[in-house]
Amino acid sequence: MKIVLMGTTAACVLGFRADLIKTLVGKGNQVFAFALDFDDDTRAKVRALGALPVDYVFSRTGLNPLGDIINTYKLVKLLKVISPDIVFSYFSKPVIFGTLAAVMAGVKRRIGMLEGLGYVFTERPEGVALKGRLLKFIQVFLYRVSFPFLERLIFLNKDDPVDLVEKYKIKVSKVSVLGGIGLNLSNYPYTVPPVEPISFIFVGRLLAEKGVNEFIQAARLVKRKSPSTRFVMLGGLDESNPGGLTSNGVSALISEGLVDHRGHVDDVAGWLASSSVFVLPSYREGVPRSTQEAMAIGRPVITTDVPGCRETVIDGLNGFIVPPWSAEALAEKMMHFINNPTQIEAMGLQGFKIAQKNFDVRLVNERLMSYFQ
After folding, report:
1. DSSP 8-class letter at 264
2. For residue 357, what are the contacts with CB-CB under 8 A and spacing of at least 6?
3. Residues of 232-255 as b/e, b for ≥16 C-beta within 10 angstroms?
4. Alpha helices of the chain — where are they, by DSSP H?
5. Is 170 found in the same domain as 191?
6. Is 16 helix (H, G, I), strand (E, B) or coil?
7. Pair 304, 322: CB distance under 8 Å
8. What are 120-126's contacts with CB under 8 Å, separation 24+?
9. For residues 284 and 259, is the Cβ–Cβ distance under 8 A?
10. How far apart are CA 198 and CA 302, in angstroms?
């Protein structure tokens, strides 16, 4: 078959779809990987996977109705030239406008996947602003328009279809829950977690919705009782985001000796291996890849009782689930590991077993490809 994979960035194609592309190509399919920001290097890497890179134009965020209509028309013409058997779109805007373009281009089979419901569906301690409510209204309206044209809509966790499809009574033919998108587990080998000193690691963009503020506040509480404990943050800054940490703020935390921030790193697995416990106090996720990576390496997890995050932890078995927005609850579970260091390896092993069972990308991709049959 000719299969279009329509996402957003080239980094997502290479980081999250490479194994799927190789498997689809290996089964004799012709794969077209759509992205908004290919360059010579990323195009070459996609071709090396066996797929054809295709550039298309869309605003990833924001609302510009005229621009979206024009770009949808351009996408229709592109799809007509390729004439694919299936368009598989992922992320919000590709699912909406890619699906509509596929309909207008005469593509018979259209499958969408939402790897999370995103910013407008994420609850916050301060509540939702008027702008957020407006954006949610518009997004739900666009989902109402596009979802009925999908053969199947795929979610990663059980909460998202309830909070979107059921709550808003949106028509869609079939809904499936995939679970985590999976990992090449050979890239994340198990290691025994170090415990001298105990260290806690956060991996993600340094945004309020990822729980970075709670991580920092919990670190401060724990440092008062256990000064030798280390706190590591990996992830880039987004100072244009109202909820993002600033470079000056992070520099102050480093000068204070509270955290070790290394920004965006290529060797996430190595940093996870050198840490004791993984922490993700996010406000909402699909099924977080960083947590899957930590579990595969054998690290216990402290995360929040919110959609996506609670899919990864069995409380008390491979880590702990805490209420969202609570630095105090987070610090309490951190202190539990500090006071009971033998549980770090024991719980990490349980997480490793769960990862082997649930997050093997080969098994996940076989399940995903079964939807293409």
Report:
1. S
2. none
3. bbbbebeeeeebbbeeeebeebee
4. 10-16, 18-26, 40-49, 65-82, 92-93, 99-104, 130-146, 159-161, 212-225, 247-256, 268-273, 289-297, 327-339, 342-358, 361-370
5. no
6. helix
7. yes
8. 121/163, 121/164, 121/284, 122/209, 122/283, 122/284, 123/283, 123/284, 123/306, 123/324, 124/208, 124/209, 124/283, 125/324, 125/325
9. no
10. 14
The answer to pTM > 0.85 is yes
On whether both 194 and 93 belong to a single domain, the answer is no
Per the structure, the count of domains in the chain is 2
Domain boundary among 141, 159, 177: 177
CB-side neighbour CA atoms (13 Å) of 282: 28
Query: Biggest alpha carbon distance in the chain?
Result: 64
What CA–CA distance (Å, rounded) separates 347 from 316? Answer: 8
Q: Are residues 189 and 164 in the same domain?
A: no
Length of the chain: 373
Q: Are residues 173 and 244 in the same domain?
A: no
Quick count: other Cβ atoms within 10 Å of Cβ 106? Answer: 10
Q: Which domain holds residue 323?
A: 185-358
Q: Are 360 and 179 in contact (CB under 8 A)?
A: no
Q: pLDDT tens track of the chain, all 373 residues? A: 999 999 999 999 999 999 999 999 999 999 999 999 999 999 999 999 999 999 999 987 667 889 999 999 999 999 999 999 999 999 999 999 999 999 999 999 999 999 999 989 999 998 888 888 999 999 999 999 999 999 999 999 999 999 999 999 999 999 999 999 999 999 999 999 999 999 999 999 999 999 999 999 999 999 999 999 999 999 999 888 888 999 999 999 999 999 999 999 989 999 999 999 999 999 999 999 999 999 999 999 999 999 999 999 999 999 999 999 999 999 999 999 999 999 999 999 999 999 999 999 999 999 999 999 8
What's the DSSP call for residue 260? E
Euclidean distance between CA atoms 100 and 164, whole angstroms? 19
